[in-house]
């Protein structure tokens, strides 16, 4: 057996940490001298210590690790814990990627402001009427992927699908969690409406100010701000009672299912 100081040197884990693991019942010494209080460990305990360190490296807390060390822990329970951790880490990655995307957009906007010119080409055009099926709700923009999933599940039951997404931004009166959002998929023919989903025709707009950019549907972006500044500087005004539209197509090269080539459309008229 090894004294705690010797076991610390072999394992490269501090004596303080080993004592802490003892207190938490994560790694108990094989023997504790009742007269001196010295802790003694065996070489076999290196395997358990290494497992603790490996689980810590994967992001598990010591409280989460304790039940994972039991010899009788079912393999399905371990799989479940690892899946939960996997989902937790994936959620963090998604949020950080969205934050990176917003930072990149903000940098692009700052550079454009410094040069006093837009960073994207802005085009005026007419938009034809469009038959769609839509789902409208007051919620956070972060729920847009979930709204599309519910809409797509309904379309799937009818044997229909579409790669094009349309987001209509009706307004934000109270908070960012109560934005009046409508998600829609274009249709080629009439289909039944559902309890939550409405089949309707988006109206023709004679003059739309449009800007194409790369975006994520669950992230805020600066493209609309850039377009609004152009509208103001160019002698136009936003037409009342017409929601801002965003037409999204998958960006195949990026390989991210939530990243799109998007065209922002704002109905305008001469000021």
UniProtKB/TrEMBL annotation:
GO terms for molecular function: DNA binding; DNA-binding transcription factor activity. It comes from the Bacteria. InterPro entries: AraC_E-bd (IPR010499), DNA-bd_dom_put_sf (IPR009061), GyrI-like (IPR029442), MerR-type_HTH_dom (IPR000551), MerR_fam (IPR047057), Reg_factor_effector_dom_sf (IPR011256). Residues 1-71 form the HTH merR-type domain. Pfam families: GyrI-like, MerR_1. Keywords: DNA-binding. This is MerR family transcriptional regulator. It comes from Paenibacillus agilis.
């Amino acid at each position: 057996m090894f004294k705690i100081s010797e076991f610390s040197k072999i394992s490269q884990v501090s004596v303080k940490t080993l004592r802490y693991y003892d207190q938490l019942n994560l790694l108990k010494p094989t023997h504790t001298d009742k007269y001196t209080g010295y802790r003694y460990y065996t070489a076999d305990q290196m395997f358990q210590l290494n497992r603790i360190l490996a689980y810590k490296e994967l992001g598990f807390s010591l409280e989460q690790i304790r039940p994972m060390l039991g010899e009788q822990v079912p393999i399905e329970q371990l799989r479940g814990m690892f899946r939960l951790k996997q989902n937790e880490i994936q959620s963090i990655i998604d949020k950080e990627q969205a934050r990176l995307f917003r930072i990149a957009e903000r940098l692009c906007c700052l550079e454009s402001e410094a040069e006093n010119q837009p960073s994207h080409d802005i085009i005026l055009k007419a938009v034809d009427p469009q038959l769609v099926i839509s789902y409208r709700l007051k919620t956070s923009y972060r729920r847009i992927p979930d709204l599309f999933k519910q809409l797509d599940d309904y379309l799937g039951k009818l044997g229909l699908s579409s790669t094009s997404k349309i987001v209509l931004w009706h307004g934000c009166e109270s908070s960012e969690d109560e934005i009046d959002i409508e998600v829609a998929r274009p249709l080629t023919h009439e289909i039944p409406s559902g309890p939550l989903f409405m089949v309707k025709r988006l109206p023709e707009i004679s003059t739309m100010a449009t800007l194409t950019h790369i975006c994520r549907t669950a992230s805020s972006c600066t493209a609309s701000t850039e377009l609004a500044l152009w509208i103001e500087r160019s002698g136009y005004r936003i037409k009342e009672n017409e929601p801002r539209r965003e037409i999204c197509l998958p960006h195949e090269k990026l390989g991210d299912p939530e990243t799109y080539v998007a065209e922002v459309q704002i109905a305008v008229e001469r000021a």
